[in-house]
Structure formats: structure tokens, C-alpha cells
Amino acid sequence: MLKPYWRTLLLLLFSLAASLPALAGAPRPDIPEAIKGEQCVEETGFMRRNHMNLLSHQRDDTMRLGIRTKKHSLKNCFTCHVVNGNDGKPVTASDPRHFCRVCHDYAGVSVLMDCFQCHTSVPGDDQTTGARP
Amino acid sequence: MNKTEGSNQIDSYRRKLLGGGAALAGAATLSSGVFFTSVARAKPDAEPASSEVRWGFLIDTNKCVDNCDKCVTACNDEFNLTGFGRPETDAQWIRTVTLRDKKSGHTTKLPLMCQHCAHPPCVDVCPTGASFKRPDGIVLVDKHICIGCRYCMMACPYKARSFVHETITNQKEYGPRGKGTVESCTLCVHRVDKGGIPACAEACPEKAILFGNLNDANSEIARRMASEGSTEIRADLRLDLGVRYQGI
Hints:
By secondary structure, chain A is an all-alpha fold.
């Protein structure tokens, strides 16, 4: 029969061994390459940290004031950040391979319900506009 | 965030100043000629909508043909407004209404959509500020902050708004729509900002729906309203509508 302090020590050792993979780090998300261009609209590190602020700022400007500059628009994201599925068509946000989903799933932040319940998550064919007489 | 908003404010003042200067220069160079169109051009992307413009429709009901619903179809196609087999709750941004004079039996048909009021009751009652009016008179719903309470639907005298009851897929990139929010005619703001005309006006084979700037005395819509006259539906409410009718 082991002494109580031995038992505690063994338990500690076991739990340490069990947590080793966690120390090595969970698998990093495999971020899909942009389909064109070397550089995002801002520097990559800045985009990783601040894309949500740019998007929500742009969103209010566009929605409320009708400012439709493309640089920081959600639409512009999808001109480069598109992942094609097996059928060669861009996958929607319901697919875990979608550009936004890859990191958002990893971070446990909802993007499927928050953005793409209303917005389309694939590039569209924006061929609308009658000429004004 | 405040800082960005502040600097934006300054930017918009600058733009106004610059815009004013440009207008003056334009007036000087054009002074001898005809003064065409302050708005036949598309609004530059970076420029906010201006309160100098007031977008609206002039709808000639005499031209509206029985059994034609091309404006309704065009709107449904433009925004993928598909039904779910529940006519009571399916989204409807524009509909045709038939009025019948009881005495003579004379019927008038007209398309009815959001009237883009200058004093919109939907904006008055909205508890979150989601219902708002753009500077150029277009009344919209900011679905990011709409909580789906539907006060605006109750307040609207024209029954112009719909509530989305179902999960929506296949939205157009210029027309986000989602379950749990209220929506209505946007006057095709995505087209208008690019210098186009709304889908219904474009689709009407009889050219019964005329789109234009009510504030520009030289625009066709303003000239026709001045010379031929026009009617507001429920003018007694004094909401100063952006959509005017003839022949009712």
C-alpha cells in the first residue's frame, strides 16, 4: 500500500503527462491562400487583429450614409479570399473550409450566424444598374 | 472608435466645403448655358448621400395595365424575395392594389411600396434606431440593430414593411436579408448610389413609374409634378411622401 503522499505525486505525474500535447499546442488553423494578390488591403498582422473594426466601420458608413468605397467592404474580402469546393464553385460559410470559418471556428467565434445569416458569403454577380434617363 | 467618428465628421465637413466650391465653379462655367442635372451622374463612392437630393417616384396609374405585375416580379428577382407558400407572411416589398369607386364602379390599379416619407412614422417608433432615413430621403432598416419588434410595421400607414419569418439563403450581395428582422423597399439604394434607377421603374413596360430627384426643379419628375400635379396617398397624415401618384 502506497503512502498518501506517493499517491498524490503519482497523480500529479499522470496529469502532467496527460497535458503534454496541450503544452505542445493545438493544431494551428490552416488558413487558405488568397486567390489573387500578394498583399491584403492592409498589412496582414493589422488585418488579423482589426478586420472586424474595419468591417463594422465600413458597414455603418455604407448603411447609414451610402459611402460605398470598396477597400474595406465585406464584398471586397471575397474578391480574393475564396475557397473553391470540389465542384469548383466557391464554398459558402456553411462549409468549414470557408475562409472566415477556418479561423473563426478555431477561435470559437460565431461568424456563420452573425454575418452570414443575412449576408452572402460568396462573391456575387453584381451586374445590376439601369442607367438613369 | 470616437476618434474615428470625429475624424469622419471632419471629413464630411471638408467634403461639403469642397462640394460647395465645385458647385460654385460649375455654376460659373455653365451660367450662360442650360443648367442640366445636378444628379444625372453617379454619386462618387466615397461621397455620402446628400440632403440636397430627395429621391422619389411619380407613378402614373393611368398607364398601369390590368394583370401586369412586372414591377413586383422585378423587385422579387432583384432581392430574391421568394415565398414560402404563406401569403400572409411572405415578404412583399411592392404590391399592386386595386381601388374601386363604389358609385361608378371605376377601378384604378397602382403599385404600392414604401412611400419614403420625409417624416416616417416607422422611424419615430423604432426603439433601437434601426429604422432610419438617409439624408437623400430613402427610408431603410439597419438590420444590424433591428431587434424584430415590428413596431414599425404597426406604425406604417401603407403596410409597406415585411418581417422575415424564415431562414433565408441565396441573398444577393447588395441586398442582405435575414430571419428576425424587418425589411421593405430600399428604393434600390444599391442601384441609385451607382447612378441607376430602381428595378421596378426599369421593368415597367408602360413607363408608369418615373424615378428622380424631387429637389431638382429641372428633373423630369419635378417638372411633371409641377405641371401635371400629383397626389399623395393619405396626404392628411402630412408625412410628405417621396412616392407620388397621378390618376387616383
